[in-house]
Design brief:
Blueprint lengths: L7 H11 L20 H16 L3 E4 L5 E5 L8 E7 L12 H16 L8 E6 L12 H6 L5 H4 L9 H7 L17 E9 L4 H4 L4 E7 L1 E10 L3 E2 L11 H18 L3 E3 L3 E4 L5 E2 L2 E10 L2 H22 L2 E9 L3 E2 L2 H13 L4 E6 L4 H5 L4 E7 L15 H19 L1
Helix pairs in contact: 1-3, 1-12, 3-12, 8-9, 10-12
Bound molecules: (2S)-amino(hydroxy)ethanoic acid and manganese (II) ion (3 copies).
Length: 413
């Protein structure tokens, strides 16, 4: 099989175009903020739909806003080869996280179409709604819906302005009441392959453009709410205080301790202290916890050890603690068959590669419930991601996209 080439400049241009939505040219250092279902996201969605149509794909948008571009196969009833990722970002995020997986997939399928190749199986490019979970606090919304893992409680989650995911979907013109119709039967999908930037340093350390993922870490997201008592900062002796912020500070260190003791990773990324006056002892505090481990059992132990410390600190400081689990996604093992196919494609294209584990979470975690799943990684400069300085070179993006294209062709024949 000859290894087909994509139009790298066209890919690069499309990455530039989609990132105009959510970036303020006057403050490039602030990166890209395109939270799901905000006006920036809706404009980017419209750009994507037009690009898919221009690329010869038949576009469908499902009730929760998953945008699916389909290249019909000779056998339109054959199970689809699916690929895709997300275009929503974190706050002040980068230009490649998710977007490379969607735009690279469009470029790959567009090239197949332009070469007049009609594969046996249909190929579908999906841009999944709200992968990051930045706005509504959970994430993987679109891929949960497609994999039948979305439920009403998730639609009720609210953003910081009190708008629920349900309302935001309605306002965007989607039909959240019909979210169950988004589910694709396992028999409908033959494989799912996601192209994504690595967001770590392994490929750079090995001077490789492309990597193949073997395992994906599953995240647990917690929200811890603490209630002490707001009192006068001057008139209240230290021994009489129920200071919610000091309890939070101690618990944050307990999060770190749990991760180190279980060789996992854990992050406290969002904090809130109320009422927020210089001379008021905080009566309320709330913080997020993101716990991850490649091994589910160890992740459970990590959670248990943090919970135990949280309860001790809450008792000792006389501050009530409420722990809520906002997201719990199993780690995933990628398909060895797909890994084999992708590594053969790399060999044929003379692209050296390696297999590696994945620390970040992806829509592939959800799609793994539906079908054999794999991820193709592209090198991240200095491993930087979720940061305006996130960068992958045109050459590396093109190589990753070519590996995706030739893999899709192999799977679709
Ligand atoms: O959180 C993650 O790992 C991904 O960026 N959603
Ligand atoms: Mn991300
Ligand atoms: Mn991502
Ligand atoms: Mn993802």
């Amino acid at each position: 099989m000859i290894a087909l080439k994509i139009n790298a400049n066209r890919l690069w241009e499309s990455l530039d175009k989609i990132n105009q939505f959510g970036r303020n040219p006057r403050y490039p250092e602030k990166g890209n903020t395109r939270l799901s279902l905000t006006i920036e996201d809706l404009k980017a969605r419209q750009y994507l739909i037009n690009l898919m149509k221009e690329s010869g794909l038949k576009v469908k948008v499902d009730p929760v806003g998953n945008i699916c571009g389909r290249l019909e196969g000779l056998n339109s009833q054959a199970p689809v080869i699916m690929t895709g990722s997300h275009i929503d970002t974190v706050v002040q995020g980068g230009r490649f996280d998710g977007t490379l997986g969607v735009l690279g997939a469009i470029e790959a399928v567009r090239t197949i179409h332009e070469l007049g190749i009609t594969p046996l199986h249909p190929i579908e490019v999906v841009s999944f709604t709200d992968e990051e979970g930045t706005r509504f606090g959970t994430g993987y919304i679109g891929s949960r819906a497609i994999s039948g893992q979305l439920d009403d409680s998730v639609l009720k989650l609210k953003d910081d302005q009190g708008i629920s995911l349900y309302e935001a979907l309605k306002l965007a013109g989607y039909q959240p009441d019909l979210y169950k119709d988004c589910m694709r039967k396992k028999s409908e999908i033959k494989s799912f392959v996601e192209l994504h930037i690595e967001q770590g340093k392994v490929l750079e350390e090995n001077d490789l453009s492309v990597g193949i993922v073997t395992h994906i870490q599953g995240p647990v997201w917690l929200q811890v709410s603490l209630t002490g008592s707001a009192d006068h900062a001057g008139a209240t002796p230290m021994y009489m205080r129920k200071d919610a912020s000091l309890a939070m500070a101690e618990m944050m260190l307990a999060v770190e301790k749990a991760a180190i003791e279980h060789s996992g990773v854990a992050t406290v990324g969002k904090l809130e202290v109320l009422p927020g006056g210089v001379n008021i002892i905080p009566g309320h505090a709330q913080f997020s916890v993101d716990l991850r481990h490649i091994d589910k059992q160890k992740r459970t132990e990590m959670l248990k050890s943090f919970k135990k410390d949280m309860e001790t600190i809450s008792r000792e400081r006389n501050v009530d603690a409420l722990l809520e689990i906002k997201k719990e996604v199993d780690p995933a093992e990628c398909s060895t068959t797909l890994i084999e196919i992708i590594s053969n494609v790399c060999k044929q294209s003379q692209i050296s590669t390696m297999t590696l584990q994945c620390g970040a979470g992806h829509d592939s975690l959800m799609m793994n419930d539906r079908t054999e799943t794999a991820m193709i990684f592209v090198r991240s400069q200095k491993g930087i991601s979720h940061n305006p300085l996130e960068y992958s070179s045109l050459e590396d993006c093109a190589k990753g996209t070519e590996v995706l294209m030739n893999t899709l062709l192999k799977l679709a024949q």
